[in-house]
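Study this one:
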Amino acid sequence: MSDNKNNSQQNDTKGDLETRLADAKATAKSLLNKRKAVVVSEENVVDVATTRSGVDIALWLIAILALISSTLISTYLPRYWAPATSSINQLIITATLVILAVICLAFTHQGQAFKVLLKDAGIELRRVTWPTKNETFKYTWQVIVVMIIVGLIVWLLDNLFNYLLGFILH
């Protein structure tokens, strides 16, 4: 009988462990699925950037017209509007048109993708291992020495070719 009790306790413990293992596998699988969803959404950024719509085309046209207009403010606007003769007014109008163009571009599909790109670039910059002060000093001197050597080689080749060309032409 005691053997039966031990066997049943072992079976209960084994069943409990199997249940916990199944739960852990299910949790891990759901986490992996969430990560895959994030990866898929990042891949969709490329799809978003290549998507064209009527709104995007209109926003691009407005942005292009605003940027072209901002370059022509000082030349043409004072002829038709007296307050535009002031440099400050021209600067304000130019800045307003440039800001309008940037806002229009930010609302396009390509602008949304660019924002994601900037966010990802910021994340990558945090991962960069920057050189120490001593390494920077050492590498700077190495670059300067190599530049001087290459400069001397180019100068010598230039003089040699000038001499040979002069010798051939005279």
